[in-house]
Design goal:
Blueprint (H helix, E strand, L loop, with lengths): L1 H13 L16 E2 L7 H9 L6 E8 L1 E2 L11 E2 L3 H17 L1 H5 L2 E9 L7 H14 L3 H4 L2 E6 L1 H6 L1 H10 L3 E7 L3 H6 L7 H14 L3 E8 L6 H14 L3 E6 L7 H5 L10 H14 L3 E2 L4 E3 L7 H7 L4 E4 L4 E3 L3 E4 L7 H12 L7 E4 L2 H11 L3 E3 L12 H13 L3 E4 L2 E4 L1 H5 L1 H6 L4 H25 L11 H4 L1
Parallel strand pairs: 2-5, 2-12, 3-4, 5-6, 6-7, 7-8, 8-9
Antiparallel strand pairs: 1-15, 9-11, 10-11, 13-14, 14-15, 16-18, 17-18
Helix pairs in contact: 1-17, 3-5, 3-15, 5-8, 11-13
């Protein structure tokens, strides 16, 4: 107890900044799965038995971008080839049909088309995707509380008619990556066209079209960002009044281009928490409420339903070359974690031939299911929901962490319900890390140490100056 209490105090006092905890176990812990052991239908049948109310989030991955941001480590490839888009859409729709029984056995709560930049697809591709969903689940427009797509400001400005057609198809939410309203910060981060004027035009178009939920983001820690430039971005975005705003600490992971080259000296220091405080103050003053540690929404309109439901334990079926699926049995991918045009071609062939299967992932024990909910869902978590997965087996460890969190003012305890305080929202990622199992922490460390060593060798060959980038381990970053 005393050790955990002092450890948490040290992390808070030092202003440690772990990466945003949006999944557990993280992708870094995925390892090749034994060939033939895992059948997708069996995995989802076993998962179905764990829920009294069967529900589902559907995530569709589109990997294409027209430029690769230097800080991005997502599964993306650079392509504007419409023939490739056609073949990929055909493959994705085949995969949707192949999962019809899995989808039909559950209430479809959300649909999210992410990437990449899905907005690069043409109207005909979206029509094909939504028509296929309709074949499998005819009433999806009635049950889905959120139908979302990721876009860039310039993709909306370049094709407003195409975006309007998406609303007619059923789109309720769009995520547009803003990151900053300071042009120099955006240019240095590798974005080309999305200057402040393009961002303003995109927001104006979306509002005029009547999109229910426009989600935007800002990033703290860009190279050259100052307290003044951060305040400018926050103030300007608040004045534009999108329904949802997220604020992230910039984390350049070892598999991002900036880390591989060592050419980008970004800020990852305790002073960034002062920028968090400023943003929170401004957004609350403008009528937003805080939905999560990084996200603010207009009451009754904004928010990120799929993320909230996933944190609450609703399973997610991920389809597409770089998609992850989250179940109570196995978190898995059907393709490689390393994006390439060859991998996309292989995905298209295997989807066409109905040959996709889990190839990499993480098998979940009862203990890891409990830890997953604790890592992701302390915003509002009823611990009694975890009893059936074996909370008792690690209860003393969990109680010790919660006692330390409560003593530092990070959580409220309402009987067996746990809720984060405003201070807990601020330091949520530190608290979340403390629920990681030793097994997950070890796998993550091994993965990132391998990437660190590869990057050091690459930078040495290029004559670049070494930089130190950490993974999720607070003991490394503290």
């Amino acid at each position: 107890m005393n050790t955990l209490h002092s450890q948490l105090a040290q992390y808070i006092d030092q202003g440690v900044i772990p990466p945003y905890q949006y999944s557990y176990p993280p992708r870094s812990t995925y390892r090749p799965l034994e060939s033939g052991k895992w059948n997708i239908s069996d995995v989802w049948a076993r998962d179905l038995a764990n829920y009294q109310t069967p529900e589902l989030n559907l995530y569709l991955h589109v990997p294409f971008c027209n430029v690769k941001c230097g800080f991005c480590n997502l599964y993306t490839i650079i392509s504007t080839d419409e023939d490739v888009y056609d073949a990929y859409t055909d493959a994705l729709c085949t995969q949707i049909r192949d999962h019809a029984e899995i989808i039909q056995a559950r209430r479809l709560r959300t649909i999210y088309i992410g990437g990449g930049t899905p907005a690069l697809l043409r109207t005909r591709h979206f029509e094909q995707i939504f028509d296929t969903i309709g074949e499998v689940y005819p009433n999806w427009r009635s049950t889905a509380e959120e139908v979302a797509v990721e876009a860039t400001p310039d993709s909306i400005v370049d094709d407003p008619d195409g975006f309007a057609r998406l609303l007619q198809m059923g789109l309720t939410r769009a995520n547009i990556g803003i990151q900053s309203l300071v042009p120099q910060e955006i240019r240095e981060a590798g974005r080309r066209k999305s200057g402040e004027d393009v961002i303003r035009k995109a927001i104006a178009i979306v509002k005029e079209l009547g999109l229910p939920d426009l989600s935007t983001d800002l990033i703290m820690g860009f190279a050259g960002q100052t307290p003044e430039s951060w305040r400018h971005s926050v103030d300007e975005l608040a004045a534009l009044e999108p329904t949802t705003i997220s604020t992230y600490f910039l984390t350049v992971r070892p598999d991002a281009w900036f880390s591989k080259t060592g050419s980008y000296q970004y800020m990852w220091q305790p002073e960034l928490y002062e920028r968090y405080d400023y943003a929170r103050k401004v957004f609350l003053e403008h009528g937003y409420v805080q939905e999560g540690s990084v996200r603010y929404k207009k009451p009754g309109r904004g928010g990120y339903v799929q993320k909230v439901l996933t944190f609450h334990g609703v399973p997610l079926l991920g389809l597409g070359v770089g998609a992850r699926s989250y179940t109570s049995v196995l978190d898995y991918m059907t393709g490689s974690v390393k994006p390439s045009t060859a991998e996309v071609a292989d995905y298209i062939d295997k989807a066409r031939n109905h040959e996709l299967r889990p190839v990499t992932g993480f098998e979940l024990t009862g203990e890891e299911i409990v830890r997953k909910r604790l890592v992701l869902d302390t915003f509002d978590l009823d611990l009694s929901e975890l009893d059936r997965f074996g909370l008792d087996t690690i209860r003393s460890e969990v109680d010790a962490v919660l006692d330390a969190a409560e003593s530092h003012g990070l959580i409220h305890r309402l009987g067996r319900r746990v809720q984060l305080t405003p201070k807990g929202f601020k330091y949520r990622d530190i608290l979340s890390w403390m629920f990681y199992s030793d097994h997950v922490t070890g796998l993550d460390r091994d993965y990132y140490e391998g990437l660190h060593q590869a990057n050091k060798r690459a930078r040495k060959n290029m004559g670049a100056t070494p930089v130190r980038i950490t993974g999720i381990d607070l003991r490394e970053s503290a």
